[in-house]
Specification:
Elements: E1 8-13, E2 18-23, E3 29-33, E4 46-47, E5 58-59, E6 65-66
Parallel strand pairs: 3-5
Antiparallel strand pairs: 1-2, 2-3, 4-6
């Protein structure tokens, strides 16, 4: 009753600050080099679209698009 298949695998390279992802439905591994991400207070919010079954390979940072921030309910 509580069985769920694994759809994603992720590896975090904490020394080099790279986050790797693999989707079990595609043959590619993609990653985000966290050293290249703008985490400053005034940085724009970005997202990586997954709704149209996009396939990413390699460094996916340039595939992130501007987005609206999450609206947390009840907080």
């Amino acid at each position: 009753p509580n069985i769920s298949s694994t759809r994603w695998r992720a590896v975090s390279d904490q020394k080099n600050l790279v986050y790797y992802f693999e989707n079990v439905l595609t043959p590619n591994v993609f990653w985000v080099t966290l050293k290249k991400v703008d985490f400053s207070e005034n940085a724009s919010v970005k997202k990586l679209s997954l709704k149209n079954y996009e396939i990413y390979a390699g460094d996916a940072l340039d595939s992130f698009k501007n987005a609206s921030p999450f609206k947390f309910q009840g907080l």
